Input
Amino acid sequence: MTLENIKLDIDYVRSQFPAFSDPLSKDWSFFENAGGSYVPKNVITKLNQFMVSTKVQPYAEYPMSKIAGQNMDKAIKLFANLINAEQNEILIGGSTSINLYVLSNALKKYIDPGDEIIVTNQDHEANISPWIRLKNDGAIIKEWKFNLNTHELEIEDLQKLITNKTKILAVTHCSNIVGSVNNLKVISEIAHRNNIIVIGDGVSFAPHGFPDVKELGVDFYTFSLYKTYGPHLALLYGKKEILSKLPNQNHEFLEGKYPYTINPGGPNHEELVSIIGIYEYLENVYNHHFDDKFNAKKISRINQLISKHEENLGNPVLDYISNRKDLKLIGKNKIKNKNRAPTISFVSKNKTSRSISDELVKNGIATRNDNFYAWRCLKHLGIDTNDGVVRISIVHYNNNEDINNLLNSMDKI
Output
């Protein structure tokens, strides 16, 4: 059987997530996944095991400590493999916002007064404000604005902004409002021809399939593990040739020991170990669908399964919103070949986003209205940043019943 003929076994997938049988959450259609996803039982098991058996200072020789340290190292190694990075090229921190703030402090080394940094107005604030702060060190900030007609970041507009003074480009892989997947590979190639460091924000991309960072060509890449079926942590990848040269942001005795130099305080130990459960979950999904055994190099096959399933769920919602004259969809109206994520934002022409969100919640649809920390994006669109948009964010554990519940609820409003 070819991959094209294999469908994601949604019943199996949902059986791996305790939330779908929990009395509090089981009757809800959950569409706030872009804010934070449910976790599979493997993650919970790993967290509990650590807290019961190995909640001690790691890396000593007694067994509880030794196992704790080994599992922390294992978690980092597994995730490095998943995104095609080396183990010393990734760090796990408290959040994407924290990781990028620390990184921006380190990258000040590369910025002289008058040097330029390009940010977009499509990004979440986490990949904007840390770079804007560098204007206090003499940097000139330029904004790559998306096209108001298409809602897309146009490559031609980027090329007009680049000069021989441009040093850093911070850009989202996928907007958490617009939903479009930006071509980071092409963007990185253009930037590198001009000796520009590229920081890619994958927070809204990674939940729909872990990327190959070497294929993307970015210098840094980050995403939130609590949006990829794990605990409230975030991953930051950086090319070792750059990481190794950045000034230490950590304790003095860690000088030269990258990536720890960019990870002050280090990760939460028990939550770090629990992300082994994400890998185990992916392994279980793979082994359930395919005859051969899973390894990190086969993540693309899971990504394809997820993409097909999410496309089948997302397109009916996009069609529905597009055909409603009283609603305005943000971004592309169709998912095809993963050109956008099933993160779907809209506004009403005659109702507030808050009122629509409240009605959806009353009908068992877990969603919300907000600017979702992408207030520059909403401001450019002329949308009230306090009322925001209604956002329906779908991931692979959603099913057709969820979609039917959503569309029936929308009809009632």
Q: What stands out?
A: The mean pLDDT is 97. Residues 14 and 79 are 23 Å apart (CA to CA). The radius of gyration is 21 Å. The first helix runs from residue 10 to 15.
